[in-house]
TrEMBL record:
Signal peptide: none annotated. This is Inner membrane protein YccF. Residues 5-55, 77-127 form the Inner membrane component domain. It comes from Marinobacterium sediminicola. Its main location: membrane.
Length: 139
């Protein structure tokens, strides 16, 4: 129940805008055709940005125990290119949102989520989103 309440408050008070920002960068990447791998990451993490409570980002390498194209050398190159063109801007947006949330005590959990998303925004290639095990103990 707490997860649902957190996600609803998050969505109304800023998660919607940051999720749209992720999806906008995803659409821009799709238009270039070359950016399709980044677009996939944008849409996965944009959906996570809409409703982050109860989920957490993990490296696909940690999840599967195997390297794939996004977790190897090509993923590193992809993350460098991402950082230059989009990652820095999304991270700044999440940092500004985090500062706004930290102004109130009630906003601290939301600010922490923004900081997590800011870190992911810097290097999203090779990341995926899974259900959080920790939330099972809270509900």
């Amino acid at each position: 129940m707490l997860r649902l309440l957190g996600n609803v408050i998050w969505f109304v008070l800023g998660g919607f805008l940051m999720g749209l920002a992720w999806w906008l960068f995803g659409l821009l990447a799709l238009v270039t055709i070359v950016g399709i791998p980044w677009a996939r990451s944008c849409f996965v993490l944009g959906t996570f940005s809409f409703f982050p409570f109860g989920k957490e980002p993990v490296s696909r390498r940690d999840l599967t125990g195997q390297d794939d194209i996004g977790t190897g050398a090509l993923g590193l190159i992809g993350n460098i290119i991402w950082f230059i063109f989009a990652g820095l801007w999304l991270a700044i947006g999440h940092l500004m949102s985090a500062v706004a949330c930290f102004i109130t005590i009630i906003g601290i959990p939301f600010g922490i989520q923004h900081l997590k998303l800011a870190m992911i925004a810097l290097a999203p290639v090779g990341q995926t989103v899974v259900e959080s095990d920790r939330q099972r103990w809270v509900d």
